[in-house]
Design brief:
alpha/beta, 3-stranded antiparallel β-sheet, 11 strands, binds 6-phosphogluconic acid
């Protein structure tokens, strides 16, 4: 990835950890990466498949993508938008990951509605909704809905202070899923279900981009990146690309706990 000056890159086995000044710098670097991936995918396949993450960190990224200079660099008509996870709330609920992305980005750019693939996690039949979402992914990228997951062009992920990513929370059933691409996952600490993409499909991303910002993420970031393997407790450790590349974009507040080495650019 093209690095501007003032960033620190630490390359570790199969992944790149890029330290940036703050959350805005993380968002700008992520926007550059989205443009890069979109251009490459559209040039190669006439289409760009992106998996959006939820939570609060990506909001600024989505807002940046909706305006110049990034907006005009993406051929929005050729973008297929998916989500990595969703809460069991309707799309207009303040907690909806879809709702956040629609407000910050999708209402402002010309992605054809048929190419915005919302997870219907509010449905009562959540297992059915998960199966149907997997089938929608398969239909969209024209692969069989069973067997090896498709390679999606760019997967955006966040990480919670407990080491979860998407809705793969510590010690929950979905962390151990090895076959299905999308599952309902009951999260005891939230006392609710979530819909989430699973490790098999997440790890098939051609590019996987974690966005992590804030000092509260520091201790878990160090455990995930530098601690011993403990994936049941730290599901973010399970994200290891099988075909593509993994880049962690982290701000200095989160990276402060890292013991890591790496080039320090002035
Ligand atoms: C969700 C997200 C989740 C998120 C992390 C980080 O639905 O909440 O998909 O995995 O990325 O919880 O959230 P913040 O960016 O709000 O810290």
């Amino acid at each position: 990835m093209s690095l501007n000056r003032g960033q620190t890159t630490v390359s570790r086995a199969g992944m790149e950890v890029v330290q940036l000044a703050d959350a805005e710098a993380v968002s700008r670097a992520a926007a550059e990466e989205v443009v890069r991936c979109a251009r490459g995918a559209v040039a190669a396949r006439g289409r760009f498949t992106i998996v959006l993450s939820g939570g609060s960190t990506p909001r600024l990224l989505y807002e940046l993508l909706a305006v110049s200079p990034f907006r005009e660099q993406i051929d929005w008509e050729r973008v297929e938008v998916f989500w990595g996870d969703e809460r069991t709330v309707p799309p207009d609920h303040p907690d909806s990951n879809f709702g956040m992305a629609r407000a910050a980005l999708l209402a402002k750019v010309p992605v054809p509605p048929a190419r915005v693939h919302r997870m219907a996690a509010e449905r009562h039949d959540r297992d059915g909704a998960a199966q149907e979402y997997a089938a929608e992914i398969a239909r969209t990228v024209a692969v069989p809905s069973t067997g090896e997951p498709p390679v999606l062009d760019l997967i955006l992920l966040g990480m919670g202070p407990d080491g979860h990513t998407a809705s793969l929370f510590p010690h929950t059933e979905a962390v151990r899923e090895t076959r299905r691409w999308v599952v309902r996952n009951y999260v005891p600490k939230l006392q609710t279900d979530r819909l989430t993409l699973t490790v098999p499909i997440l790890n098939r991303g051609a590019a996987i981009l974690f966005l992590v910002a804030g000092a509260d993420k520091g201790p878990v970031l160090r455990e995930v990146l530098e601690g011993p393997p403990d994936p049941e407790r730290l599901p973010s450790q399970l994200i290891r690309p099988t075909v593509g590349r993994l880049v962690w974009l982290v701000d200095r507040a989160a990276a402060g706990s890292l013991a890591g080495t790496g080039r320090v650019l002035p």
